[in-house]
Write a structure and sequence with these properties.
single chain, 369 residues, alpha/beta, Aspartate Aminotransferase, domain 2, Aspartate Aminotransferase, domain 1, five-stranded mixed β-sheet, 37% helix, globular
């Protein structure tokens, strides 16, 4: 893999070879449902808005450069999850998913895909290798898990899943290709909610699937083409814009998260911290092997639901939202949604605020609890 600096230098300038003097450096937004096609044959690159769009082409090319793989974009991360489940299974198949991953992924698998005689099996991320993968058609991992931040060994799961004949997918939303590269570790496809860090500005819903398998890419592409879960050209353009600052934002976010994890762990009002970068964290050994950084998300246990709610509501530099990965730090008490975490557990996503003002705001709020 190219290092992040070289990769992003290439990403920022990858369009230049296609431009003529006077062309716009920034891609255009093409809000078109129809395109002029030749009277004979159908070889025009764009024919109909459900099939292709020039703005998709630009954003998918940028994401493909970052992933080192073919990319198919979707109007949300959950649309990408659904596309994976639907295209990679058939009646009678068994699917393995993390029991501690994002709840909506399990919900659509069980409620909608499961009705077509597809059996959904769940297993905790920290013990994902236990029991093997014989008999599974599709294995989906989410590592680190959201919100508990457990990890599984991607390379080991990939090797075992492939030996068992399963397709192996990894939801890499929390890490992005800058923090972790599942395809390089043997995964067949990557799922990402680009609503989060890749876009980074909390103003667009978006997702993508990346794969180096021509057959998977063709199947996923046809699924989108014929069933219509397509991103809007404007949202696609917003994600392209956000993507160009990802390396800078991700560096700030992950650097701050590492420092905050240590400070929060030492604070008298904090009962516990989950962060794969902490040497004592249960996930640290595996995370150190497979991650380029330890991410921007922390789990902070404040001991009670009331303390967690007060921290989120009172800290002036932490916004209360149910998403993460934007330029503003955010917090949410995930137990209120039924996630298997302590009642006082705050999923804290570190944003782009300067570190010391952010810490002072957190420290003062914690002291007031």
């Amino acid at each position: 893999m190219k290092d992040a600096e070289n990769l992003f230098a290439e990403l920022l300038h990858h369009r230049l070879s296609k431009l003529a003097p006077g062309d716009a450096i920034i891609p255009a937004i093409q809000p078109a449902s129809v395109f002029l096609t030749p009277s004979a044959g159908s070889n025009a690159p764009y024919q109909y808005g459900r099939f292709h769009n020039p703005t998709w082409t630009e954003t998918e090319a940028a994401l493909a450069l970052l992933e080192g793989a073919e990319v198919i974009t979707f109007p949300s991360g959950m649309a990408a999850v659904a596309a994976t489940l639907i295209t990679q299974t058939k009646a009678g198949d068994r699917v393995l998913m993390p029991s501690d991953g994002y709840y909506a992924s399990r919900l659509i698998a069980e409620r909608f895909v499961g009705r077509f005689n597809v059996t959904i099996v769940q297993r905790p991320t920290a013990r994902f290798l236990d029991g093997g993968f014989d008999g599974f058609a599709l294995v989906i991992a989410e590592t680190p898990s959201n919100p508990g931040l457990d990890v599984c060994d991607i390379a080991a799961v990939a090797q075992a899943a492939k030996a068992a004949g399963a397709v192996f997918a990894v939801d890499n939303t929390t890490m992005t290709p800058l923090g972790q590269r599942p395809l390089d570790l043997g995964a067949d496809l990557v799922i990402s909610s680009d609503t989060k860090a890749i876009n980074g500005h909390s103003d667009a819903l978006f997702g993508h699937i990346a794969t180096r398998s021509a057959s998977i890419a063709a199947e996923v592409g046809d699924y989108r083409k014929y069933t219509g879960p397509i991103p809007s050209p404007f949202d696609t353009w917003l994600v392209h814009r956000g993507l160009e600052t990802l390396e800078v934002r991700f560096s700030r976010m992950t650097g701050s998260a590492a420092t905050l994890a240590e400070r929060l762990q030492a604070h008298r009002k904090v009962k516990g911290v989950r962060y794969p970068g902490l040497p004592g964290d249960p996930a640290h050994a595996v995370a150190k092997r497979q991650m380029a950084s330890f991410g921007f998300m922390l789990g902070v246990d404040l001991g009670s639901a009331s303390a967690a709610d007060r921290f989120i509501d009172d800290c002036r530099l932490v916004q209360s939202t149910t998403s993460f990965g934007g330029i503003r730090s955010s917090g949410e008490r995930r137990a209120k949604w039924g996630d298997p975490v302590p009642e006082g557990y705050v999923r804290l996503a570190v944003g782009c605020e300067p570190l010391e003002p952010l810490w002072r705001a957190m420290d003062a709020t914690l002291d007031s609890l």
